[in-house]
Amino acid sequence: MRSAAVADVIDLSSDDDDEEPVPSTSTSSSASARASARRIVSASPRDITPYALVDVKPALLYPLQSPGVGGGGGALVPVKEELPVPLPVPLLAASSPSTKVAVPPPRLCRQFWKSGDYVVAQRNPDADAPGGRNRLRINPKFLHSNATSHKWAFGAIAELLDNAIDEVNTGATFVRVNEFTNPRDGSPSLLIQDDGGGMDPEALRCCMSFGFSDKQSDAFIGQYGNGFKTSTMRLGADVIVFTQNQKNWVPTRSIGLLSYTFLMGTGCDDVLVPTVDYQYDLATASYTQMLRHDQKLFSSNLAILLKWSPFASEAELLKQFDDIGEHGTKIIVFNLWFNDDGDMELDFNSDKKDILITGAHKKVKTNNADKIATQNYVSTRLRYSLRAYTSVLYLHIPANFRIVLRGHDVEPHNVINDLMYPECVLYKPQIAGLAETSAITTIGFVKGAPDIDVQGFNVYHKNRLITPFWKVANNSYGKGRGVVGILEANFIKPTHDKQDFEKSVLYQRLENRLKEMTYEYWDLHCHRIGYDNKKLPKASRALYRANQMNAGSSPPSAPRQLLAADIPTSSCAVPTFMNPALRQKQMGLKRNFDALGSKTDSADQDGVHSDVSQRRRFNGYRTLTLENDKLRGECLQYEESAKQLALKEQKLRSQIAEARKKYEQLLQEL
């Protein structure tokens, strides 16, 4: 029997790596299927589906003990049937015991939330247990159902950006997000590229599999080994990955295709991922095919890639490595999903410097300046603008790293710089068995409050934004309007899509504390943005209004109309703890404040004058403290960069020495 030409596919969940290959024991079923297919091809044109180009049904595959995905499978070989190349549509339905007719594949719905219907081709149930042992398979429909964890397209893109940010440890300096035109049909696709360390052939197969992740350090954002599959399948039906790596000083290039269109079009009952690899040949100074098994297997994989990817030739595939450099990864998501209105979900046309959510960026026409300011603020724009979302996605962008969106750098937006009268509040969660941890929350009024309708907390986890402008204070009377906060909460775990937190006890306690924090801040400072704060002493309220009148603000009879622009800007410079301890006692607040000296009743009656004098004394100390922390952080970054550069220098020297050694060996052989 001739050897089977099979795809070097990845079994995404198998744990039977130690199984021996079981050869095909009979050719009768294969011959019968080929004869049936020949009858189909010889039929009249009206009876032939344009996709019926193969002669047998899909093979049942199982992992061969060989270099494959560690712990999860490797190259797959057929048990009963050959796997033809390419695999257009092997859906053969029996209309009678002796006659088989071609059944056209179901048309792939381009709307993501309606594309979960999947039909598996008829297959032989006797081929379920290779070697007498059962094997867990993954139905291709799981790719769609798994991707539904992302309700928002930008959340899926953020997953891919996280992978690029994690590559900073391997020397990445940028991640590029852009539109890519599919050369087959001219349709827009999404391109995400970085110059990180790239992946070797084994790492690519782990990336394409479920649950494989070497990101166990707290320094990494992703740790589950599931983000690539969920994010790419949420954005489009198909994704092709190009990656170049120099592990062990041997440059390699690998290409992998995860295609829902391919699986659905062929009616496969398992997730198959064709991959091909290339290795640099020092003798010819070029990349040559890297045969993991044999030439026929490589050709099979390549044929599937050329059939179902945007590239029709091997030369076009390899040309995609031209702009990757010595190492890096390029991801192209094509056949992008449509929304319920039949329009492509990602809008590349409305703004040539941005990627928008189709239909979500339509602003309400209004002449109201307050509504216009609210619509233009980042809290509103991030819902539909990828540039706005990525500008606040990371609390701190690593040094010398750039996020390039459609050819233009994304400027980080620090929400702390938008705050008036900021304060820093220390929060220490108390729970049994939890190591002592804390989070510093910076809270204040957003510039333009209360006219601009914005409030909530930006909560980060390991430098990554999880909940943007989380509105914890929900009420109908406007208390908390304009109050915005920022904190990094590493003591609670985010959900798998990184768009929310797990609803744990710690999460509930944090939510309650942030709500209290909002109301406390409001009660102390709402008079600064024009509200009549009845919780202040009468003398302080009268004096504050008089000072505002002298400054040219609105009259006391209309405190709500007080403009934020009339408030002195000197109080917006640095976060401070502005209220005295006696006022804290009067209002029954839970906040902890630094002792700035003893306060008397007469000082409290002086109200605003005492408050201003305290602030002046404290601002100098607080400014120096913040500057010291900033410089310490920069020093740590420089030290880490120096270590990385030293390691890189050592690796390059070793690589040069190895190259010289091989060069001398080649000279001796000549």
Mean pLDDT: 74
Strand content: 15-25%
Question: Structural class of the helix and strand makeup?
Answer: alpha+beta
CATH topology of the domain at 143-357: Heat Shock Protein 90
Q: Please give the share of residues in helix.
A: 25-40%
Largest sheet, strands/sense/barrel: 9 strands, mixed
Number of helices: 16
Total number of beta strands: 20
Low-pLDDT stretches are 1-104, 553-588, 592-612
Radius of gyration, in Å, reads 31 Å
CATH class of the domain at 143-357: Alpha Beta
Give short descriptive properties of this protein.
670 residues, alpha+beta, Heat Shock Protein 90, nine-stranded mixed sheet, five-stranded mixed sheet, 31% helix, 17% strand, globular, disordered N terminus, ATP hydrolysis activity
What can you tell me about this protein's structure?
The protein is an alpha+beta fold. Among the domains are: 143-357, Heat Shock Protein 90; 414-606, no CATH class. Strand 14 and strand 15 (408-409) form a beta hairpin. It is built from 16 helices and 20 strands. The model is unreliable at 1-104, 553-588 and 592-612 (pLDDT under 50). Helices cover 31% and strands 17% of the residues. Belongs to the MORC ATPase protein family. Residues 1-39 are annotated as: Disordered.
Set down the secondary structure blueprint:
Blueprint: H1 28-41, E1 61-63, E2 76-78, E3 92-96, E4 99-102, H2 141-147, H3 153-166, E5 174-181, E6 188-194, H4 201-208, H5 227-235, E7 236-245, E8 252-259, H6 260-266, E9 275-281, E10 286-289, H7 295-308, H8 314-319, E11 328-336, E12 346-347, E13 356-357, H9 369-376, H10 378-381, H11 386-391, E14 402-405, E15 408-409, E16 419-427, E17 439-446, E18 456-461, E19 464-470, E20 483-488, H12 505-525, H13 538-550, H14 581-587, H15 601-605, H16 608-669
Parallel strand pairs: 5-14, 18-20
Antiparallel strand pairs: 1-2, 3-4, 5-6, 6-11, 7-8, 7-11, 8-9, 9-10, 12-13, 14-15, 16-17, 17-20, 18-19
Helix pairs in contact: 2-5, 3-5
